[in-house]
Design brief:
By secondary structure, this protein is an alpha+beta fold. Helices cover 50% and strands 20% of the residues.
Length: 143
């Protein structure tokens, strides 16, 4: 009987610790999102700021306009921008992004916005932006 009481207590203690760690993670996650203030008040403003950073060759700043991933990182975007910079293609990317126009069909969600990039009448790609609701700035979700 005593062993069962101990086992139940130990299981309960472990569950409480796991919940506490999860809540601490969430607190840090939301705090980091609230502090992520690089971006504009509109999708167009964020896109313009991103293009400006690319034209200046500032990939550190340019990467800050991307949304954080689930690990609170932008590493994949930082690495991709470094490759473009090392290949002297930042101005090419910036010039292509200047051709972006708001997509004809937008999401019904108010916190998502799409641009379409056209070049010589052909669709070259899409840019997805999302509103970081914790800092109230628009972030690039994908290119």
């Amino acid at each position: 009987m005593l062993k069962q009481v101990y086992d139940d207590w130990n299981t309960s203690r472990k569950a409480h610790e796991a919940i506490q760690k999860y809540n601490e993670f969430l607190d840090q996650y939301y705090k980091t999102l609230a502090e992520d203030t690089y971006g504009g008040k509109t999708p167009q403003e964020t896109l313009n700021m991103f293009i400006d950073a690319l034209e200046k060759g500032d990939i550190d700043l340019a990467s800050k306009y991307f949304a954080l991933d689930d690990n609170l990182s932008r590493k994949k975007w930082e690495d991709a921008l470094k490759v473009e910079k090392d290949s002297n293609r930042l101005s090419t990317v910036a010039n292509l992004l200047k051709k972006a126009v708001p997509s004809k069909t937008q999401s019904s969600l108010k916190n998502v916005f799409w641009f379409t990039v056209y070049d010589n009448g052909q669709i070259k790609g899409n840019i997805e932006l999302t509103l970081n609701q914790y800092s109230n700035v628009w972030k690039i979700e994908g290119l």
